[in-house]
């Protein structure tokens, strides 16, 4: 059966429903980016004072690159841009992979929030709840 197009405006979930979800996802991804950037600074500072500074500095640089990439995705998420789906979903999968074993360990109070944020953001970004804007093909 061919898919019928819905009239304009019917795909909205109500007044501000989709915008509220976009804001929620952007805030959560922004918090993840901020946590990565703070962790990167702490790792670099600790690495500079260590006897083998290469390990801390290298990990800090990697965390900073990922944090900056996620921070760049926040603007696209607010606009509903499709290009944000790939990097954000990749990070959520990695974060869930870390959060799952940590939530079953003695540090469950770190693992459960990490896993919960990954699941919520992943669900909203993977579905059609947040990412809806079509990119201009004429660009």
Q: Would you give an account of this structure?
A:
- There is one protein chain.
- The chain is mainly alpha-helical.
- The chain has one domain (18-126).
- 70% of the residues lie in helices and 0% in strands.
- The protein starts with 16 loop residues before the first helix and ends in a 13-residue tail after the last helix.
Task: Write the SSE topology.
Elements: H1 17-48, H2 53-79, H3 85-103, H4 108-126
Features:
0% strand; 70% helix; 139 residues
What are the low-pLDDT stretches, counting only 5+ consecutive residues below 50?
5-11
Backbone CA Rg: 18 Å
Largest sheet data: none
Whole-number count of domains: 1
What is the rounded distance between the termini?
33 Å
How much helix is in the residues? 55-70%
- Helix- and strand-based class? mainly alpha
Query: What's the number of extended β-strand segments?
Result: 0
Give, in order, the helices and strands: HHHH
Overall, the morphology is globular
Indicate the mean pLDDT.
85
| Alpha plus pi helix count | 4
Strand content: under 5%
Short note summarizing the structure:
This protein has 139 residues and is an all-alpha fold. Helix content is 70%, strand content 0%.
